[in-house]
Amino acid sequence: MAPGSSVEDRRRERIAQSLENGKLHYSLGELGKAAACFKRAINACACGMQLRDTVCICKNILDAIEDGNLEDALKKKCICSAKSTRHCYDPHHMNALNYLAAVCEKQEKLDQASIHGQNLITIAPYEAKGYLRLAKVLRLQTEASLAIATYQEGIYIISQKDKYDGSLPTMHQMMTRVKKSIRFDFVQRLPIEISTAIFELAGFRATCRCLRVSTTWKKYLTNTGEMKRLWQVQAFRAWKPKGPIKTQALVKYVAYADKHVTHFSVETCTEFKFDMQKLAVVFQACRTLENLKLRVPCYPSNILPISIRYPQLRRLYLGLGVKATRAFVEAIVQASAETLEELSIFDIDSNNVADGEVMPREWPRMENLKTLRLSAGGRQCQLTLSGLMVNTPNVEEVWFEGLALFFLNEHTGWKNVKKLYLGEGVSIPVIAGGALISPSIRELHLAGGVVLQLCGFSRANHNAYTAWLHGTHPIHSSVNFANLAQLEKLSLRYLGPVGPGYLDSWVKPSMESGTIRELELKNFPFSNFPDDQDGEEITWFTSNKLTHLGITGLTQEVGFAINSAEDWLVDFVARFPSLKGLDIGQELISDATLGTIIKMGVRTIFHRHGRFQDDELVAWAARQGSTIVDGPNFWSVSQHPDRCPPSTRGGW
Which InterPro entries match (predicted)? Predict the structure, then answer.
């Protein structure tokens, strides 16, 4: 040391030496020794501000940056031990603190590095080093948006002092680079209402998978108040899952909704291994459950009575393969009697039923029930309707299949039924026709022998049936066919021979009134529909309102009731100028005839001929704005509700 050197000069030399030693250790990877040297340099500064491991609680730098008011925060008076009101622009002090933050970065102590970066801004707010260092630390902490805000605040504050400062271009360059690398995270930027709508549109499966995107997304989806309604509707759709639904996952998903799940559905119980125990977990956890839907398209599964508290459901839907025992139905109906609006059970368990009835005769009062669908899954079982009719006075849709219906009181009936489906395997007494077909009926589907039973005939009543076929016996039915004058949709599926009053009874009332919109006759009763050559033409069989038509049986009548199936079909379609949809099943109709029908205005043709349609015909039809579908018409009024695609089953 040269003689006469002042104390201040010696201090500056010691600081400079400590800083150089720290840089050397840092370059050699000796981070501990480097940190000690940088700390000595900081504490030896003449400003008197010792190194701190905490930030100033008076100014809260990070919150101020996020709010965009850092300049105001730096001007606040410090009353804590940080003494951050004082500034120091000594290069050695700033460099030492900057290098110390870099050491913490190398040691992956990012929280401590952030503290040093904030303290550097506090002691030298018009120096770029603090903003550059803090922004880098924030980027390492995956806080890219906050890093950009740090650059912006630094540029603004420094430019207030000197808009030509040499560090400004560097800060602009770094901010631009970070902006290019950052990805737009809509959950943090979009309004909560828009984000909620996006996830609702994506569906429950996509929402579950989004939990794994990031910690931010999981916190946003599970802790945000508005987002909790996403978990109130839990629908396990028909996709190929990687494994079964775990009980822990069910409990977790329910917790995300604060146990206020209102809708729970499983499209493929066998794929998800959803069994009785898991259903018990759902019932126990979801006390506010309103809608329950379970489906098993291929394999059987048993649902047995569960000794727990049942929820008060609004809608219960058990598809084919989901066995519903009598005890289970009794329990769920009793619990939900005041709230139940839909009861759809398509596979009633008929085994081990002592009295032969799969349903109880005593039903609770269900004022709110609007939809009733019952089926025995291919077997015929007994069902006494009288008590059910009395206790469900407001039913509007009825769907039965495979049930032998009994009436203890022939005067009982549903007065508000608008949709009635009586499918295969349904048998009813003659007196029941008036009880089932109400004056308010708008949609009617009949299949199999029930068509003749409602007319007052059956195969067992052979003499009367034969006389009716030959036109020597009139129809004597309890059905008031005048009630059919308001029908909008009618489907009759009966393959046997019919008498002369068949079309007059079922089709004529709604055809003449002009209310019919969709008509399906499979097979078409050609014996009731003579042409010009063989008999008097039926002039009333025409409508300007009919938009969808389904007919089969043309080919088998060629040479008997009709001469040419294709010519007859074209003439028949011409009776309905507003026709847009035509279902001809597996009839042998040529491509040329299909093209002629399309030219007549039909927009969709369902033709299941067992072969692919000619590509040229399909392309030509598309150019005309029409479609030829090589498959079944799932939108037909007669389709089984549980055999249709999900998009056609009522939206849930």
Answer: F-box-like_dom_sf, LRR_dom_sf, TPR-like_helical_dom_sf
Question: Contact at 8 Å (CB) between 123 and 90?
Answer: no
> 520: number of CA atoms within 13 Å, CB side?
25
CB 92 within 8 A of CB 16: yes
pLDDT, one tens digit per residue, over 268-310 is: 787 777 877 788 888 888 888 999 998 876 444 555 555 677 8
Give the Å distances, CA to CA, from 299 to 28, 370, 381, 440, 503: 68, 29, 21, 39, 41
* 560 burial type by CB count under 10 A (0-12 exposed, 13-18 middle, 19+ buried): exposed
Cα–Cα distance for residue pair 577/561, rounded to 1 Å? 24
- Short-list 105, 85, 155, CA closest to 127: 155
Helix, strand, coil share (%) of the chain residues, nearest 5:
40, 10, 45
CA 422 from centre of chain: 30
Query: What single-letter DSSP state applies at residue 500?
Result: T
- Domains of the chain with CATH codes: 7-183 (1.25.40.10)
Burial pattern 444-482, b for ≥16 Cβ within 10 A else e, equals: bbbbbbbbbbbbbbeeeeeeebeebbeeebebebbbebe
